[in-house]
Write a structure and sequence with these properties.
This protein is of the alpha/beta class. Helices cover 45% and strands 13% of the residues. It contains 24 helices and 14 strands. The strands form 4 sheets. A 7-stranded mixed β-sheet has the order 1-2-3-4-5-6-11, with helices on both faces. A 3-stranded parallel β-sheet has the order 12-13-14. It has a two-stranded antiparallel ribbon with strand order 7-8.
């Protein structure tokens, strides 16, 4: 017991502020067979440019492992500040070079700077039988920023078993992290649907939509795009009226962030007039203006300054769903100063400390369950905007893991399986390895048909090993032409695992074949592929919302922030409503047996289809909600016209 306590204290100290002596102390405590071998590398190691920005490579020692793998430990000091994305690929290359040149199978590589930030990585070569394969490596990595949460790595370092390499690898698995976070989110979801009040829409959908938006915001915060202070109770008590005891935080901060900040250019942001309808009619149902002056403790200009560094994001994720319809006013988000139409979510749903509540109606049992505020949950985990690959895994919450979590929430929401899903532990998703295999096989079949490359050569291209595949210029041109012509659709897209896998696999392929950079940078490549190649359909609207979230995140990670340019240099995100749509793909259209006047009808239908295609192209990049509405109305009119033409030639009305 005393030994366990000592180890916890060592790990706590190491995570709080990294230094070499603490690392050695941990290794001596954790690994009975740790053999210290202090030293530095000879100068010849630094000659090829791999170690640029590295101040010092420090050899810590070796670890003897029962299944006879050779295992080393190195600490690498960076001359510049280390961030979550600093030279991440180069660090992998450094670790691989050390393993390869010094003939180790695996090792811990700790990259650190003088500010206390560090990246703790496990890197190992892929064994094939008894043979070591030194062209194929895998990395698991934790990044710890001084002053930020470190519970994930702390738990892993304490609970790690050390008998075999497999034991060590399992400590770096993302599965426990995913399950732990999902369990907390599911309990919060059950609590929120019990406590929150929205003016319309299904409460379950509204809560999942809120979680989706807030998690997107949290990723933006990790990129430095959203101010930390709007999640700090000490700051908020001077901003939000009756903070902590009422239900105004969601309206004053989150709704104004979602709908009036992220949905509008910085220079165009302002408050709606706080007057009655006759005076305020020009701004009635204008959904990107700030609201709730009566619930804010500071003046309007001062409040607007809180959000002045936040860019216009666009993309539809933060478009307010309140609208006027044939039945009157359809308030769903409840972004309204009218008390009967305002969404009401108590502040404790966001900031409560852990407590036990009765969720028996949701879980169908009598147990009390622990819950805490959503902001407090999000603060307690490590986040990264980079999605992991099969060979490079960041052990933190990334967009892919969020996809898994949302797929489980969708299972809870699904009437057919919700009872089972509520008692499950997070298993309603397709594992990454299977998605990767499905994507690779689908693309190999496509490229085999569309290019002159053999299946064997395509398999080499898609391999993660470091062997160079020699391609002729004609073969590379063939592949790039086939990529430009590619169209893929997932008819049951869920949280977007398959189309996102396609996007990442095509980017991986382009890094190998686009040697001249004809496709531009990663953002430009992604934008082209999303606009021209990738589509998804699902019967559940909230699944489409989550799928779009992942694609938005894949774009936002590659934008460069420039505070001297309009919108801080960030190009507003595209609209994905025509890329990922709600529909029932099992619904079969019954065609008429005999079609009269087909040539004339074909001509008319082709014209309508051309117009719809042009509208979809325009909609993808349109910026304002007014223009979006005009295009949607025009598209709806054309679809009705198309439907009427099809009925006139015998297609059934269904």
């Amino acid at each position: 017991m005393a030994e366990d306590l000592k180890e916890k204290e060592i790990v706590e100290s190491l995570c709080l502020e990294f230094d070499i002596d603490k690392l050695k102390e941990y290794l001596l405590q954790k690994f009975p067979n740790f053999n210290p071998k202090p030293g530095t590398l000879p100068g010849t190691f630094y000659e090829d440019g791999t170690f640029n920005d590295v101040e010092e490579v420090i050899r810590i020692g070796d670890v003897e492992i029962n299944n006879y793998y050779s295992f080393c430990v190195f600490a690498i000091k960076y001359s510049n500040q280390l961030t979550s994305r600093t030279s991440k690929k180069k660090q992998f290359e450094i670790a691989k070079k050390l393993l390869r040149n010094l003939l180790y199978d695996a090792g811990f590589f700790v990259f650190f700077d003088q500010n206390g930030n560090f990246r703790f990585s496990l890197v190992y070569s892929n064994p094939i039988g008894t043979k070591r394969e030194y062209s194929f490596y895998k990395r698991y990595t934790y990044y710890v920023e001084k002053g930020k949460p470190y519970r994930t790595i702390k738990k892993a370092l304490i609970e790690m078993k050390t008998n075999t390499l497999e034991d060590i690898i399992s400590a770096f698995s993302t599965l426990p992290l995913t399950k732990e976070f999902y369990d907390e989110i599911q309990r919060w979801y059950a609590w929120a649907i019990k406590e929150a009040v929205f003016p319309g829409g299904k409460i379950e959908e509204n809560i999942i939509r809120l979680i989706t938006r807030l998690i997107f915001v949290w990723f933006l915060k990790e990129r430095g795009i959203i101010p930390e202070q709007i999640f700090d109770p000490n700051f908020l008590k001077n901003i939000v009226k009756d903070f902590g005891s009422k239900d105004y935080y969601y309206n004053v901060i989150l709704q104004n962030l979602f709908f009036a900040t992220l949905n509008n250019y910085p220079e165009e942001r302002k408050f709606a007039k706080n007057e009655s309808f006759p005076i305020n009619r020009t701004e009635f149902m204008v959904k990107n203006l700030f609201r709730y002056q009566d619930k804010i403790l500071i003046d309007e200009d001062e409040f607007l300054k809180i959000f002045e560094g936040v860019p216009f994001i666009n993309g539809g994720l933060f478009e307010c769903l309140d609208d006027f319809n044939e039945d009157g006013y359809g308030y769903i988000d409840g972004f309204s100063r009218n008390e009967n139409r305002r969404a009401k979510l108590p502040d404790y749903l966001f900031f409560s400390d852990e407590k036990e509540v009765d969720l028996s109606r949701f879980y169908e049992d009598s147990k009390l369950r622990k819950v805490r505020g959503l902001i407090n949950i999000l603060k307690d985990y490590n986040w990264t905007v980079d999605e992991s690959s099969p060979v490079d895994v960041e052990v933190s919450l990334d967009p892919e893991l969020l996809g898994h979590i949302f797929e489980n929430l969708l299972a809870v929401y699904n009437d057919e399986i919700q009872t089972t899903a509520r008692k499950a532990t997070g298993s309603y998703y397709t594992p990454k390895e299977i998605v990767d295999f499905m994507v690779e096989q689908a693309l190999i079949e496509y490229f085999t048909d569309k290019t002159r490359l053999s299946k064997e050569k395509l398999e080499e291209l898609f391999s993660y090993d470091e062997n160079v595949v020699n391609l002729s210029e004609e073969e590379r041109d063939d592949l790039m032409k086939a990529i430009r012509e590619l169209k893929i659709i997932d008819p049951a897209v869920g949280s977007g695992a398959f189309p996102m896998g396609i996007l990442h696999k095509l980017l991986f392929l382009l890094t190998k074949i686009d040697l001249e950079g004809r496709w531009g940078n990663d953002y430009e490549k992604k934008l082209y592929l999303i606009e021209n190649s990738i589509y998804g359909v699902d019967i559940q609207p909230i699944a489409i919302q989550i799928c779009k979230l992942r694609f938005f995140l894949s774009l936002i990670i590659d934008v460069e922030i420039d505070r001297n340019r309009r919108n801080y240099g960030i190009e507003p995100l595209p609209n994905l409503e025509t890329k990922f749509v709600v529909a029932n793909t099992l619904f079969k259209i019954k065609k008429p047996e005999v079609v009269q006047k087909m040539s004339l009808v074909d001509y008319v239908i082709s014209g309508i289809k051309r117009e719809l295609k042009e509208l979809r192209f325009r909609y993808f990049r349109v910026k304002t909600s007014q223009e979006k509405k005009r295009i949607r109305e025009k598209a709806n009119y054309l679809r009705q016209e198309l439907s009427a033409k099809l009925k006139s030639i015998g297609f059934e009305e269904e």
